Amino acid sequence: MIGSVRIPKRSFAVSSVAALTLGLLAACSLGPDQPRTVAEEFAAALGSGDVEAAAALTDDPDAAADTLSAAFDGLGATEHSFTVTAAEETGDDAGTFSLDASWTFGEGTFGEGTFGEGTSGEGTSGEGQTWDYSTSGTAVRVGDEWRVDFDPAVLIPGMTAGQSVRYTPTLGPAPEILSSSGAPLMQEQVVTVVSIDGTADTAALANLLAPIAPTITAQSLTESVAAAQGAPVTAITLRAEDHAPIAAALSAMTGVTSSEQTRLLAVDRDLASPVFGDLTTLWQERQDESAGWAVQLVQPDGTATTIAGQDGTPAEDIATTLDLDLQYAAESALADLPQQAAIVAIAPSTGEVLAVAQNASADALGPIALTGLYPPGSTFKTVTTSAALQSGEVTPDTVLPCPGTENIEGRQIPNDDNFDLGSVPLHTAFARSCNTTMGRLAVGLGPDALTDAALQFGLGIDYVTPGLTTVTGSVPPAETPAARVESAIGQGTVTASPFGMALVAASIADGTTPSPTIVRGATASADRTAPPVPPEVTADLRAMMRETVTAGTATDLADIPGVLGKTGTAETGSGSAHGWFVGITDDLAFAVFVAEGDSSAPAVQAAGRFLR
């Protein structure tokens, strides 16, 4: 039956189809059932998306072509079909017919909802959003030919001349992103985008914006306008509370325009965690999944009436594990550091990510707290010591040499400032961070010993965590004794992110590696699993980390009750060194990283500010 055609979406621009049109017109003058014939040919042309052929079958081809083309463009359907369900002559020169129409839009699964007489929004799983309806029309004799008496309502129910039709997605109330206490963390807010062109007085605008954005200058604005080569450029995006006091002054400026938009923003402008990017992506996914759709008739003045569609389901709020008090403390602890710096805090018992912070210098490089890879230096001695203890060759009380410097496998290994402890128990060598002791221990380990020990603490495991993109680090097998010496002190090919070292600390605190989580109820999946560290080994490590604070390299934190830790300094190869500290206190494990801090001191001091 030629009146039912379903095709994929295609361009509906009017094209020349003279041969088809002539054939259809000729057919219109033949046969006994002329209303049905012309109606089916009209349906077939619509089904193929050929608006010129369909328009030529009407009594007003020009108006029909304009209306049909605009309707196909406005609906933008992926599929459509038209079927003649009834037709009859009502006289020698007239007849009526009925059409069933179906339009499919986009992707998704929707239920059935009715929006007005004869229209529905019925969806089919996997086939997108479908609008099914019936219309009726009139066929008339024009001279020797039969034509469809064109009325826009033949195509779209209720449409009249001058109206247009469009498909549009619809959104319900925006979800919120909540902190661990349930307080709003991020919300959709109205902002004002301020744009300028070459006629703007950049000096006056910079002066107006100075209290809000001191970094914006007349020179920076002028350079932006020049680079745009005459096109308008965005000068600043203002929150509502910033825009209101200067709105009148902005509107009075030549070459300055303002427009409102909605954006997802942190409730507090002072919060700027690198996790917000992934949480925003998750928020958008939930918005998209909950979206509805509508078909609207649009009046010439732009007002619209919905005639079909389906309401979306309310998007669920995103409850995160972020602790606002800890987040503020972490951001404050880093704010005054000139170097790139980051803090990541995790609850060992649950894997919940409690705080992720980095300063403005780090923000310029991206989310280094979560994905930046650096040599971890002596914080990696937690892994080296675990591997040595698990080998059975040493215990915490085994007395080992700690010379100020030693040539081990061709690599001259010094202690910090060449300090020399002589021979001391392993726990003392750990607390005082003896490079020479750790390097010598690693020589006797197998090529995979440090790799395997790192995996037991989550370092080197790839986690897929809803709402959080992370990289833990990499600890390749050390095939030679010389390579193991380098790896033992967190140098060579060993790398870790602040997130990765926070996970190491959490694993030591809990005894097993927790599955990281930032959205409640959505735990991570891992690309591999590792056997747990024997409980006695993690207990020994905790005791050594406590000694590091009470009598080792982190005594600046000794006033904080019960804190455990390990300091780290990692050479960068460019004459500078990164500073690290990993710590544990109660159900809190964290890592502090300060790029090119030259020692662990800035990281230890930041840890103190964070905890205090």
From TrEMBL:
Cellular component terms (Gene Ontology): plasma membrane
Keywords: Signal
GO biological process, one term: cell wall organization
Keyword Signal: yes
Domain NTF2-like N-terminal transpeptidase: 35-163
Listed GO MF terms: penicillin binding; peptidoglycan L,D-transpeptidase activity
Leader sequence segment: 1-26
InterPro entries cross-referenced by the UniProt entry: Beta-lactam/transpept, Beta-lactam/transpept-like, MecA_N, PCN-bd_Tpept
One Pfam entry name: Transpeptidase
All copies of domain Penicillin-binding protein transpeptidase, residue ranges: 342-598
Keyword Ligase found: no
UniProt-recorded name of the protein: NTF2-like N-terminal transpeptidase domain-containing protein
Organism of origin: Rhodococcus triatomae
